[in-house]
Amino acid sequence: MSQQRVTALDERLWQLVLPSSPFETLSTGHLWTEGPAYFPTGDFLIWSDIPRSRMYQWIPDLGVRVLDHAANNCNGHTIDPKGRLVACEHLTRSVVRFELDGRRTVIADAFEGRRLNSPNDVIVASDGGVWFTDPTYGIMTDYEGKRSPSEQEGCFVYRADPSGKVEAKIRSMLKPNGLALSLDERILYVADSSASHDAAGYRHVVAFPLGDDWQVGEGRVLITIEEGVPDGLRLDEYGDLWVSTARGVEIFAPDGCPLGIIHTPETAANLCFGGPKNNRLFITASTSVYAVYTAVRGAACPAR
């Protein structure tokens, strides 16, 4: 354990963080950790080491084990309202769901007859619709997937409805990455991390209004990251945005006002809330996985 380092940019930050809470290292020695997801029914955390194509599990008081040695270079994960794991797989270029009996269901692997790029992050809305981003990171090299040509016209944000229909909802972003829904599901937040590989790219989070029928309105840049790029996104119970970046976890009010930073020893790739009280922040950061308690709970399952 180590002392937590926090930078306050607004007094409201002290309602969200616990500076005296120790910063814990749950696991280390990885190549690139991603996709943390907490299972409340079992009180455990899973995440992926993308280059090693492994999925790991951490259980309180028991420690860490490899849960899957051939995880298809999986990246982002989420837990749907029925408690099922939904995963973005770079190697298979698909979004899949693991049923409660262990079966693997493919939610999406193509759009308009062409293979997806490499699904990156995913969320499930209250109606069962699955939203996911599809940049090309997993097909650019063999390190995080398999080097392959893109078959799509761009990198889009998709929605797979409960019937299985896949629709490109946002086509205006260069490298859409992390995403999150506002508490009332009227805003979709999407990170564009294209500056990671393109000097002319973006490092911002865009807010898109959502209509009653899940139609997407014109987006506006809500947050611009100063160091590195925005990657994973999560909301707390008040609708504040927690964003993983090169500096750690940066926290913003719903209007985009920066509140502060929880610094991490390495670049933070993704994050999620969990624990029995949903007040523990889990962070996948480069070679390690960290945890710290917060003064706020993570957002509950979205509901319209």
Automatic annotation (TrEMBL):
Names of the cofactor(s): Zn(2+)
Positions annotated to bind a divalent metal cation: E34, N177, D231
Cell membrane listed as a keyword: no
Domain SMP-30/Gluconolactonase/LRE-like region, residue spans: 32-286
Keyword tags: Hydrolase, Metal-binding, Zinc
Cofactor binding notes: Binds 1 divalent metal cation per subunit.
Residues annotated for substrate binding in this entry: N120
One Pfam family it belongs to: SGL
Record-level Gene Ontology MF annotations: hydrolase activity; metal ion binding
InterPro entries: 6-blade_b-propeller_TolB-like, SGL, SMP-30, SMP-30/CGR1_Lactonase
Active-site residues, Swiss-Prot/TrEMBL: D231
Superkingdom, taxonomy of origin: Bacteria
Protein's UniProt name: Gluconolactonase
